Amino acid sequence: MSTSIENRLAQLGIALTTPPSAVANYLPAIQEGSLVFVSGQIPLSDGTVAFTGQLGKDLDIATGQQAARLCAINVLAQVKAIITDLNRIEQCIRLGGFISCTPDFYDHAQVMNGASDLMVDVLGDKGRHCRAAVGCTSLPLNSAVEVEALFKITP
C-alpha cells in the first residue's frame, strides 16, 4: 500500500474538490502552530446538501454513515486547503459529530462511524482519533450530519 495520502484517496476513488465555503461568518479551517482546526462540515456535494433530514425519521443508519463519510471527505478538503500537502498530517486528534435525529434515535455512534472509518481508511493509524457523537433536532441547511475535526501536522 502506498504511503501517500493522495494515492490512498485515489485508491478509494475519492477526489478532493475545492472545499465548501463557509455559510456564515466564520473560517472553515484555521491553522494555529502544529494544529489545524476544521469547522463543522456538512455533507455538501457540488454545492448541494446531499443528505438532508433526520435519522430515525427520514434516513436509516447506513444512509447516515454515507452522510458522515461525505462530511469527513469535506474535512480533508479543508485541511488540504490549509496545508496543501496532506502527508503533513501527523494525527487526526479528534472528530466531533452532530447527528440530526428524532428524540428516540440512539445510534449516533453508528452513524459517526462513517466519518471515523473514512479517516482510518485514508490515514491508517494516523486516522485513529477520539470523538464525540451528539444527537440534535436540526442542523444548518437541514443537513443530516455535521463533522468538525482537529489535526496535528508537521511544520
Tell me the number of strands: 7
- Overall SS class: alpha+beta
Distance from N terminus to C terminus (CA atoms, Å) equals 25 Å
Task: Identify the CATH homologous superfamily.
Answer: RutC-like
CATH class: Alpha Beta
Mean pLDDT: 95
Succession of helices and strands: HEEEEHEHEE
**Would you identify the CATH architecture?**
2-Layer Sandwich
| Number of helical stretches of at least 4 residues | 3
Extract low-pLDDT stretches: none
Cα radius of gyration in angstroms: 15 Å
Give the number of domains.
1
Subunit organisation of the chains: single chain
Tell me the strand percentage band. Answer: 25-35%
Secondary structure blueprint with pairings:
Blueprint: H1 5-11, E1 29-32, E2 35-41, E3 44-45, E4 48-49, H2 61-83, E5 89-100, H3 108-123, E6 130-136, E7 145-153
Parallel strand pairs: 5-6
Antiparallel strand pairs: 1-2, 2-7, 3-4, 5-7
Brief summary:
The protein is of the alpha+beta class.
Task: Explain this structure.
- This protein is of the alpha+beta class and 155 residues long.
- The chain has a single domain, classed as RutC-like (60s Ribosomal Protein L30, Chain: A).
- It is 30% helix and 28% strand.
- The strands form 2 sheets. Strands 1-2-7-5-6 form a 5-stranded mixed sheet. A two-stranded antiparallel sheet has the order 3-4.
- A hairpin with a 2-residue loop joins β1 and β2.
- α2 packs across α3.
- The radius of gyration is 15 Å and the shape is globular.
- 39% of the residues are buried.
